[in-house]
Amino acid sequence: MRIEAKNLSWGVPGKTIVRDVTLTVASGETVGLIGPNGSGKSSLLRCIAGLRTPDAGSVVYDGEDIARWPARQRALKMAFVEQTADTDSDLRVAEVAMLGRTAHRSRWRGPDASDHAKVAAALARLDLEGLADRPWKQLSGGERQRAHLARALAQDTQALLLDEPLNHLDVRHQLELMELVHSTTQTVVVALHDLALAARYCDRLVLMHRGTVVAEGAGADVLTSSWLRDVFDVEAEVGRDSLGHLAVGYREPAR
Ligand SMILES: Nc1ncnc2c1ncn2[C@@H]1O[C@H](COP(=O)(O)OP(=O)(O)OP(=O)(O)O)[C@@H](O)[C@H]1O
């Protein structure tokens, strides 16, 4: 599934929040969206997910403009985990994951063996098998995040859109999740604040600043001292750690 944003702009009265963004994500590619708070990452993801109607430009999946897609078709094509995803209900973890199967069923049919198999596989990938029957309200923040990710995997779509999926996750689950998004055949757009993990696991990074894309490319091309200074307003040195991965060392902010 190839995803394109073409000259996309979106805003609210008096404020343009996403400004003329053009972005192509190849089928199977994992693209990391990075940028400081308020740079427009979530807004762009919501446009790409079809939850915001662009003021200008378009979002195109495999050549089709999604503006005309009904919600069910969107749910069959893309799964989206939002940053503040919450579920205000008495559902259990397996039932939250089963929500991902909704678009695959007719309204009158309950889950079948294939739905249960997809949910079981998704729970296993997110290390949640032991919590399948646990009520949602009893989960920790990281367990809730993983349950939402399991819901998105159970949805079994060709595109996966993730907004800060590492929120609340401990380091092992962060690494496992990034490994998962790196190795999946799905097309992934993932907004991340951890720049080193973004560079390590994404095929390409897209740097946003004030609603627009200012740089894109391989981690080493985007994570440079000058971009970090210009966009994040930090003094930093970029090098390699002992494993050969990009590492960013930050200096104290000037006062
Ligand atoms: N519905 C809205 N009404 C008014 N302002 C909005 C709305 N949605 C987003 N914004 C503003 O647009 C800007 C971009 O927000 P967005 O959530 O897209 O940024 P972000 O890059 O995802 O930030 P963060 O890293 O903090 O999650 C912010 O200044 C935000 O306050």
UniProtKB/TrEMBL annotation:
InterPro entries: AAA+_ATPase, ABC_transporter-like_ATP-bd, P-loop_NTPase. Keywords: ATP-binding, Nucleotide-binding. Residues 3-235 form the ABC transporter domain. PROSITE patterns: ABC_TRANSPORTER_2 (PS50893). This is ABC transporter ATP-binding protein. The keyword DNA repair does not apply. The keyword Transcription regulation does not apply. SMART domains: AAA. One of its GO terms (molecular function) is ATP binding.
